[in-house]
Specification:
6-stranded mixed beta sheet, Purple Acid Phosphatase, chain A, domain 2, binds fe (ii) ion, about 290 residues, alpha/beta
């Protein structure tokens, strides 16, 4: 883990052990885990999530699961598995539709409300991009999943969609986490600044490479351009390097298989008070799981 808090004199808090008085219910620790990629990513989540939650006394766990099914998409069974492992909310991104069966799950699955797809996809598609819940400590929270448009499928404007959905939240919901699934660093940073002071955190996903720019923006929003993925870094953004190299060298798009070896979990830990971020720190766990 790295980092701490910065900006406008915020207190720096240790992630190692913070005991909270019962009355301090608006203090929330969020753990966000980046894109779970295929079986190595799922194995890492099984190996580390419960220990991370206990070690850091996490109140809210959000996991991006868009690559859980062999690197491409997610199924209802895999979403349920991630929820059973301790995720409170599963977010996704452009790959959410890769497995057709996820559409049925998003319509009527057991915990479908806690499995998000980017909110700015057309409303005719199943699922939602916003979830409201209550943390283990009793604090109301919301998770919003949006997708960028630069170098990606043209969708509804994610900025206006954020405005629209944030306006639906009650004033009591101060802890608001945003997974912004986008390709361009500029678009991600723009979203961070656009929502600064209105949400607790804007964390980027999709590029699968963690960025070293975690910080707290002036009005209290924690930001990181990309949290990185949870999977095998021996490959190229999660896939076998020989197959990806072949694509670059020949221009022929063949099927890609998940990589194996040198796997790690990438996440970010955020502490917030009254909905304002007070610290943000990257979190990385290397695999000790055979086969990863
Ligand atoms: Fe991804
Ligand atoms: Fe993606």
């Amino acid at each position: 883990m790295t980092g701490g808090s910065e900006g406008r004199g915020r207190r720096t808090l240790s992630f190692t052990s913070v005991s909270r008085p019962a009355a301090e219910r608006s203090f929330v620790k969020i753990l966000f885990v980046g894109d779970i990629f295929a079986s190595p990513g799922r194995a890492l989540l099984r190996a580390h999530l419960s220990e991370l939650v206990a070690r850091h006394q996490v109140d809210l766990v959000v996991v991006n699961g868009e690559n859980a099914a062999g690197g491409f998409g997610i199924t209802g069974a895999l979403a349920e598995e991630m929820l059973a492992l301790g995720a409170d909310v599963v977010t996704t991104g452009n790959h959410v539709w890769d497995r057709k069966e996820i559409q049925d799950y998003l319509r009527s699955g057991t915990n479908a409300a806690r499995v998000l797809r980017p909110a700015n996809f057309p409303p005719t598609l199943p699922g939602q991009g916003l979830y409201q819940g209550v943390t283990r400590g009793g604090e109301p929270y919301a998770v919003l999943n949006l997708q960028g448009r630069v170098y990606m499928t043209p969708l509804d404007c994610p900025f206006r969609k954020a405005d629209e959905l944030l306006a639906t939240l009650p004033a009591t919901c101060r802890t608001i986490f945003v997974d912004f699934h986008a390709e361009a660093t500029s678009e991600k940073q723009a979203m961070g600044w656009y929502l600064d002071g209105r949400v607790t955190a804007v964390i980027g996903t999709h590029t699968h490479v963690p960025t070293a720019d975690e910080r707290i923006l002036p009005h209290g929003t924690a930001f990181q351009t990309d949290v990185g993925m949870t999977g095998a870094y021996a490959g190229i953004i999660g896939c076998r390097q020989d197959e990806v190299l072949s694509r670059f060298l020949t221009g022929v798009h063949t099927r890609l298989e998940p990589a194996e070896g040198d796997a790690c979990l990438n996440g970010v830990l955020i502490e917030a008070q009254d909905g304002k971020a007070v610290s943000i720190a990257r979190c990385r766990e290397r695999s000790t799981v055979v086969g990863c």
